[in-house]
Amino acid sequence: PYTAVVRAASLSSLGASGAAAVSDYDIGVSGAAGSGLSNYDISYAKGTFHVSPAALTLTADDQSKTYGDAFGFAGDAFTLSGTLYNGDTVTGVALASAGAPATAGAGDYAILASGATGSGLSNYNIGYAPGRLRVNPAALTLVADDITKPYGMQYSFSGAEFTSVGLVNGDSAPSGVYLFSPGAPAPANPGSYPVFIGGVFAQKISNYTVSFSNGVMTVVAGGPVSGGVAIHSLGRPFMSVADQTINNDAPFEPFETLTLDTDVSLHLPQVPASLPTDPAALANIAPAAGGASSHGGVSCANSFLAGQPCAE
Length: 312
Prior knowledge:
1 helix, 1% helix
């Protein structure tokens, strides 16, 4: 029998070009070459050239912000993995995160990417990878109040003598704040003392990084007492004019309170025989040269300065 050999044929396809978009293209065949082919009626059938999408991955960039701040995505914070061909571009990506609002608590949140925009992107199989949005705690400083108190008075802290600096989103000041000062006890001498502040907080405040700033307690030798006017002599504080109560028992207790009235005894050391009723004038009373003082028919002996009771 006669033997023929086909050694080659011409093949072509529009899909073979690097510029060919994703699609199916015909593969044309022609021009068979070999030996003995003149003895054959040769026909040609098309093949299929399939152009698959190129792989492309868009990863959202990691971001950070502070609790209380809103974060806005511009759409260009992403990283492209893969190759863009033929001048194709990615101009933007939709980015979103539950951590973006100002009210999002401190912690890590996923940044989700989707919806890439650009040119020629139909020729790519685009995958999206999440990024991370870290919400850092806000700075909160608890500042101890500056306090002034008279010598001889015990100061008791309520726990509210501080100011919160840095609260956001309508958050409340933490409870469980404690304060202390070596100037708080009654015997603390006149001068300046630190007001220490710290906290074992009753509620979780994980959205903040808390720092503390001490205040100053100033102990003064006499001066206004809560609600009244201090009366003092020789630099020693004695009492305030505030209520209608007075103790006539011995020994003398600093800062006993009283109201100027003709029916009460005044624990005053060596004061003039006639007392003014103006509180401002009372604050400037100077010690008398000696003898007893009286008001409303009640006397106080000079021995009062030695801690003796006021004698009626």
